[in-house]
């Protein structure tokens, strides 16, 4: 049973060299892989699932920051080993769209307005770290460098 989700065809194609090494580590040659795909498609599917989980596991282990930006709200996360810190902003102004440059500029100018609500908090992981990160990604969060998290953190300190 898969822990995460299978990589898309495009993702698998982009990782074809890694997949070849994965097969080689299992002593499966290119010719044998072709035979497996043709004669035992269920085994081929299992190998793709295992490889996908390995890729996800490696990628999620490296995640330090996530963010999700919606028209009226921003959620930024700093991911540590045992906990996750969240900073979020909610704008109560339907004319502001935080997914645009104009919306972000508006936020920097009106950060202390009553129409801007800021929240922050820490939470210990209730399940495995990588699984919680994966669930945030499934909910629309994207892996990022943390620039927005740091900017919001600085704004809070002022």
> Which word captures the global form?
elongated
Q: Percent range for helical residues? A: 40-55%
Q: Give the biggest beta sheet.
A: 5 strands, antiparallel
How many discrete structural domains? 2
Strand content: 15-25%
Through-space gap between termini: 49 Å
Number of strands: 5
List the secondary-structure elements in sequence, H or E: HHHHEEEHEHEH
Can you list the strand order of the major beta sheet? 4-3-2-1-5
User: With helices defined by DSSP (H or I, 4 residues minimum), what is the helix count?
Assistant: 7
Structural class: alpha+beta
Radius of gyration: 21 Å
Detail the poorly predicted runs.
none
| Overall residue-averaged pLDDT value | 94
């Amino acid at each position: 049973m898969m822990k995460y989700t299978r990589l898309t065809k495009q993702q698998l194609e982009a990782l074809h060299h890694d997949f070849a090494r994965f097969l080689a580590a299992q002593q499966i040659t290119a010719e044998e892989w072709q035979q497996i795909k043709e004669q035992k498609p269920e085994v081929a599917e299992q190998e793709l699932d295992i490889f996908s989980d390995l890729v996800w596991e490696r990628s999620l282990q490296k995640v330090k920051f996530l963010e999700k930006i919606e028209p009226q709200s921003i959620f930024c996360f700093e991911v540590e080993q045992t906990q996750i810190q969240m900073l979020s902003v909610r704008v109560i102004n339907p004319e502001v769209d935080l997914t645009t440059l104009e919306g972000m500029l508006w936020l920097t100018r009106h950060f202390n307005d009553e129409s801007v609500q800021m929240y922050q908090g820490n939470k210990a992981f209730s399940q495995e770290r990588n699984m919680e990160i994966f669930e945030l990604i499934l909910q629309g969060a994207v892996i990022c460098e943390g620039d927005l998290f740091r900017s919001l953190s600085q704004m809070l300190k002022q």
